[in-house]
Design brief:
- This protein has helices spanning 32-47, 69-73, 108-114, 142-145, 152-161, 167-173, 185-197, 201-214, 219-234, 237-247; strands spanning 7-12, 16-21, 53-57, 62-64, 79-80, 84-85, 97-101, 104-106, 118-122, 126-128, 165-166, 178-180.
- By secondary structure, the chain is of the alpha/beta class.
- The strands form three sheets. It has a six-stranded mixed sheet with strand order 1-2-3-7-9-12, sandwiched between helices. A four-stranded mixed sheet has the order 4-8-10-11. It has a two-stranded antiparallel ribbon with strand order 5-6.
- The chain is globular, with a radius of gyration of 19 Å.
- The two termini are 31 Å apart.
């Protein structure tokens, strides 16, 4: 893609794709065109069987400021009909996606992180939901996803004060998986992606879906509902390969079937 496009896509090896938000003049905020471009990138990732992990990132100065408020004032909202806010918030990909955060991830920027499965952040990054301090409401999933990921009263403090916190605090709370030095978040995310790639792709995808739905199921529902995701994995060629590789004390060669 050309540098003028709001979303840049770059493959790293055979199985990883880096999706970069590239609107530096608007602090990587989203208008409608950017949302549709991200949705297209997510769709392409989902459709490519060779790709097994995606990384969503911004620039070294800012991950994303969320909705482009100037565009919004003109009726240009950063959302799509199918995947919702920013082309991802309502329907994240079924395959794993990692947020690599530098600078600020505020408002919709934090909600983008919450739509991802793993978060790698620079130590100097700041994350938060400043909407209430501006007489806005965070409607991109932050107000219902955040309390499921960190303690209730701390999520409430973020929501009610609008004050951002450093990434180091979010790491202490378990929201950020790995901290890096400034400028190294993408490198750290690529390293984490390699750890994901070492696992079997069908099992990774099924495990993601079970964890993703776990908040919504009670125990009885969970025992029943997980079967739909686990059954294809337990009948797969990769299961047999995993068992053979373990017995033969070698690395498994996954085929994704």
């Amino acid at each position: 893609m050309s540098a003028s496009e709001p979303i840049l896509v770059e493959r790293h090896g055979d199985h990883v794709v880096v999706i970069r938000i590239d609107r530096p003049h608007r602090r990587n905020a989203f208008d409608g065109a950017t949302a549709h471009a991200l949705e297209a990138a997510i769709d392409a990732y989902e459709a490519d069987d060779r790709l097994r992990c995606a990384i969503l990132t911004g620039s070294d100065l800012v991950f994303s400021a969320g909705q482009d408020l100037i565009a919004a004032a003109q009726g240009d909202l950063g959302r799509t009909a199918r995947r919702g806010g920013f082309g991802i918030l309502a329907q994240p990909p079924d395959k794993p996606i990692i947020a690599a955060v530098e600078g600020h991830a505020l408002a919709g920027g934090l909600e983008l992180c919450l739509a991802c499965d793993l978060i790698v952040s620079s130590r100097t990054a700041k994350l938060g939901l400043p909407e209430a301090a501006k007489s806005l409401v965070a409607v991109g999933g932050g107000l219902f996803r955040l309390p499921k990921r960190i303690p209730y009263h701390l999520a409430m403090e973020l929501a009610l004060t609008g004050q951002p916190w450093p990434a180091t605090r979010f790491a202490e709370l378990g929201l950020v998986n790995r901290l890096t030095e400034p400028g190294q978040a993408l490198t750290g995310a690529l390293e984490l992606a390699e750890a994901v790639l070492a696992a079997a792709p069908l099992a990774v995808r099924a495990s993601k879906q079970i964890v993703r739905h776990a908040y919504d199921w009670d125990d009885q529902e969970a025992w029943e509902n997980q079967r739909a995701y686990a059954a294809p994995v337990l009948a797969s060629e990769d299961l047999q390969e995993g068992l053979r590789a373990f017995a033969e004390k070698r690395a498994a060669v996954w085929k994704g079937r």
